[in-house]
Design goal:
With 397 residues, the protein is α+β, with helices and mostly antiparallel strands. The chain has helices at 2-24, 91-94, 97-143, 149-192, 242-245, and strands at residues 29-35, 37-53, 56-60, 65-67, 77-78, 83-89, 198-201, 206-211, 217-219, 224-229, 234-241, 253-257, 265-272, 277-280, 286-296, 311-328, 333-334, 341-347, 350-361, 365-370, 377-380, 392-394. A six-stranded antiparallel β-barrel has the order 2-11-15-13-12-16. A four-stranded antiparallel beta sheet has the order 3-10-8-5, with no helix packed on it. A four-stranded antiparallel beta sheet has the order 7-6-4-9, with helices on one face. A hairpin with a 6-residue loop joins strand 17 and strand 18. The protein is elongated, with a radius of gyration of 35 Å. The two termini are 56 Å apart.
Length: 397
Amino acid sequence: MQRKTLLGAAAAGVLLLAALGWAFAPRPVQVEVATATLGPFETSISEDARTRLRERFVVSAPLAGRLQRTALREGDTVAAGAVVATLLPLMSPMLDERSLREQQARVGAAEANAHRAVTRIDAAKVALEQARNELRRTEQLAQQGFVAPTKIDGDRLAAQAAQKELDAAVDGERIARHELAQSRAALGAVRSGSGAGFVLRAPVAGRVLKLHHTSEATVALGTPLLELGDTAQMEIVAELLTSDALAAAPGSAVRIERWGGPNALQGRVRRVEPAAFTKVSALGVEEQRVNVLIDITSPAADWAALGDGYRVGVRIVTRSEARVLRVPVSAVFPQPQGQGLAVFVLDGGRARLRPVVVAARNGSDAWVREGLAEGASVLVYPPAAVADGVRVRPRQV
């Protein structure tokens, strides 16, 4: 009887020890797992921006007089040379010597502007020819394998920019000649002292952006009357931090988002202005920012509803790779004592520490250059309990 009691107590003790061992044995840590995959990767800079017209024209009073009431309103379309305002001259100031000399000075300034516009056209033609020659040389070298394809893209964009500069110079010369004709007409009205109305015509075809006077009023010489612009010639201005602007090189691809349309628009960085300015952020921090000018490359019909000064969001692509090894950026963490970066890999139910070399990262992915193979299962947001060799179990989603 005593022997049976001892055997029963021993068996109970063994069961109790087994139960305690099972209860206190370390259990696998539940973890979230992702797979390292090959695919496209890009880094970008996101910033709020605004639209603006590339060219804005202000029609001013070439002489003092009484402005007649206009039937134009903001948004109206006008043709080049159309009458946009009528001035009735004020007789007493138009007959004095001072008004005559003022008009003569305005004619002289307009003539100088016209000559400068012609010079600008000549300079733009030289720049365009130089850009085309550089593009031809680059294409010849590319056929021989001496330059990278990106150099061809840069030279092609430079040639396109030079062509646009020439187009802008031609438009500027036309505007300068229009202003010269207006100034000469105003001088003729001052000399004659006629009481006939003096008409102001639109220098370019476009839309009325702003009317400074809608009713009849007496205006002085040089008073702005209305602003015109072609809304099809739109650009985007993004104020980037100077540290970010260094990565936004001319020619970089841009995605234009949050503009009100169903799909993102495409664009290209045309220019990074050389001078920065100080801007105070919403948190009261002084920041050095610089204007980055972006051309919209999507068809004009896709963004016809955009106007001047509209708010948009831009994403400037600073680096783009077609096929690299990617893992979630939350799987990469720094090792202690500055030993570089690492990830935890799921291997046979245990977490294994793998040092990796990360080439770049964005908001969602990290580009792993070395230390990992395609298809490897990595731990995302590894808990503090995970260490090299610890048993883990993927969390069921």
